[in-house]
Amino acid sequence: MNGDTSYGIDRRTLANGTVVLARHIPDPDIVAVSIGIRGGSRFEDDATAGAAKFMEKLFVQGTERHPGPDLVQRPLTIRGSGLSVGAGTEMVTFGAQVRSIDVEVMLDVLGDVLLHSRFAQDRVENEARVILEELNARRANPNVLASDLFSKAVFEGHPLARSTAGDLENTPRLTRDTLVGYRDRHFVGRNTVVAVAGNLPVEEAHARIADALGPMPAGETAPLSNVPAPVLGARRIDEKAGSAQARVLIGGQLPGLGSPDRFAIAAANAVLGGSGFRLFREIRDLRGLSYDPSPAMAQFPDAGIWLAAAGTDPTNVDTVIGLLTHEIDRLTEERLSDDDLSNAKNYLEGSLVVGLETPSAQSGQMIRDEVLGSPVLSRAHVEGIRAVTADDVQRVARAYLRTDVATLVVVQP
Q1: What CATH number does the domain containing 146 carry?
Q2: Residues 309-321 pLDDT 10s
């Protein structure tokens, strides 16, 4: 489908299936490009577990024209920029931004990396060692380990349970042939979305992306992200790590981004954190039991996750669990005041504007909107926030933020 979408985003599709989104922002004199490819961790299987993390590493390890990671980055770094690559759940993303006079160089590097990365055997072996070191470091960090255990438990049996950080057991088994096969299967036109935001006219943006990525093979489209989430009951997971602090996480599943409840869920999360500061006030300000009590949520096309977390002294674990549970339950038992609701909605709208101030942030959001299917850069999103009522927040809290069936993770020395 070609043509204009809301927010001045022009959407077109190349012959190989690549979707190109362009938004002209004349000031500042910067052009940002984000590329999202549906080859994230959720598309791995038992034989390829951990492959997405290798994609993050190997695409910047060298091409024929840029035979080494320093030579891949150098054309951009000497222009004040750099190429970033990140493995996510749905996508592996590539991003860079430069002055408009350097767009040709940026797209030359991006095209070369995506089409001609060598995935050399020695780099595969080297990056395997790096990934294993990173994974072992994650297990030694109580905060990170708790998060990893929590996500795996909440999504047990679902593709979202696969970690974007890699797979400790399977990483040593991943051969170059397996990784190249994963790349060639997923990193194709029909799985690719490109967003250009900044000081580049729309027609020129489309023409330049067609030149850079038009040669990418069309390939086959990855499966839709529409796997039903498993129904899970309450559980507690205890693990040992670290030397001083304990980490507590409590939470559970949410519906996917297609749910109309997503705006009320976001408001509930804001009340606990960014706008209402309920967790911070009760656990840190009034009692001094944690330096970082906070809520979080993430949603994908088919499922989501919510949690409340805090780091604390091991002697205070039970008290902190009780306080986290109490504040979550308050949302189900007490209707929000008008001020609390207004603050939450203002926070969601304001953080959206501030967070998308730069061309780089906008191009990144554009590819997420396209791939995840629930546009944030849209009038409908703002209207969805504004339409939330106090009854909506209480209703979704009762439906989803249920501490009686939550997953509890405690990591302590």
Answers
A1: 3.30.830.10
A2: 999 999 999 999 9
